[in-house]
Amino acid sequence: MSRQTLHIHGVTRSFPAQGKGAPTLALRPTDLTVAPGEFVAILGPSGCGKSTLLRIVAGLDTPSGGTLALDATPIRGPGAERGMVFQSYTLFPWLTVAENIAYGLRERGLPRAEQRAIVARFIARTGLAGFEDHWPKQLSGGMQQRCALARALANDPEILLLDEPFGALDHQTRELMQELLLEIWQADRKTVLFVTHDIDEAIFLASRVLVMSARPGGIKSEVVVPLPYPREWTVKTTVEFAALKARLMGDIREEVRKSIG
Ligand SMILES: Nc1ncnc2c1ncn2[C@@H]1O[C@H](COP(=O)(O)OP(=O)(O)OP(=O)(O)O)[C@@H](O)[C@H]1O
């Protein structure tokens, strides 16, 4: 069960100039607090700094200013308590499905029997039974992302950082993946930060949706999603869902327009 609160204070990120160009201010001072067990979706126009923010929380990038902490412990690099899943398929091609899922467990030196038990549990939870010995290239896109999710979850992180994890999938597969993730989150209630371009996906999954402004990005607005859990796909057809969608669409359209000048 997640226990630590994520504190982001005044975090900024500026990328150095390339050649004669000016430096890119990707993220203006950003404050965000995420309580244990929250599911926070982040929406915003392309290039507004969503991935930058997520990578900083993951410890894969360093902020130019500001501080991040889990409770009182500063975040200064990657850590096992934060698991990340990216949009593009990032499985190790030289490892089988089971070996990919076991990767972090093996790195941490868990006994083989324990590794096998954990892998079996996440194979079952992500519907990959029968594919344990397949290579990533033998899997469909949806299966590869299920494996990436299983690999992240197997390490039992407190916080899951998901950067458009379903962005490359077809519509039907994407909807099934949303339901799978929701089912897992409803059972485990891990803290989730989820970057997406898809407003329906954000509302369906999240307990809170943040909208980022056009670059330099910052948090422009936030909407607490009052739809009760457990949620079924049919919630997407409700009046409440449509009202939330209309509000978020208004906010995002304004930012997209700014971002394309
Ligand atoms: N390593 C880097 N070096 C230079 N500029 C970068 C780097 N990474 C990101 N940027 C710039 O920072 C800005 C924010 O990028 P980021 O990838 O965080 O946006 P995003 O909101 O995730 O975009 P998208 O929705 O298109 O994935 C962009 O202008 C991008 O060009």
Brief descriptors of the model:
7 helices; single chain; ABC transporter ATP-binding protein; ATP hydrolysis activity; four-stranded antiparallel beta sheet; ATP-binding; six-stranded mixed beta sheet; ABC_transporter-like_ATP-bd; alpha/beta; 261 residues
Ordered list of secondary-structure elements with their pairings:
Elements: E1 6-15, E2 24-34, E3 39-43, H1 50-58, E4 65-70, E5 73-74, E6 82-85, H2 97-107, H3 112-125, H4 141-154, E7 159-163, H5 171-188, E8 191-195, H6 199-205, E9 208-212, E10 219-224, H7 239-259
Parallel strand pairs: 3-8, 3-9, 6-7, 7-8
Antiparallel strand pairs: 1-2, 1-4, 4-5, 9-10
Helix pairs in contact: 2-3, 2-4, 3-4, 6-7
The structure holds adenosine-5'-triphosphate (ATP).
Adenosine-5'-triphosphate is lined by residues 15, 24, 26, 44, 46-52, 215.
What does this molecule look like?
- There is one protein chain.
- The longest helix has 21 residues.
- The protein has 261 residues and is an alpha/beta fold.
- The chain is 36% helix and 23% strand.
- The protein has a domain of 69 residues.
- The chain has 7 helices and 10 strands.
- The structure holds adenosine-5'-triphosphate.
- Adenosine-5'-triphosphate binds next to strand 2 and helix 1.
- One of its GO terms (molecular function) is ATP binding.
- Keywords: ATP-binding, Nucleotide-binding, Transport.
- InterPro entries: AAA+_ATPase, ABC_transporter-like_ATP-bd, ABC_transporter_ATP-bind, P-loop_NTPase.
Short description:
This is ABC transporter ATP-binding protein. The model has no long low-confidence stretch (mean pLDDT 93). The protein is of the alpha/beta class.
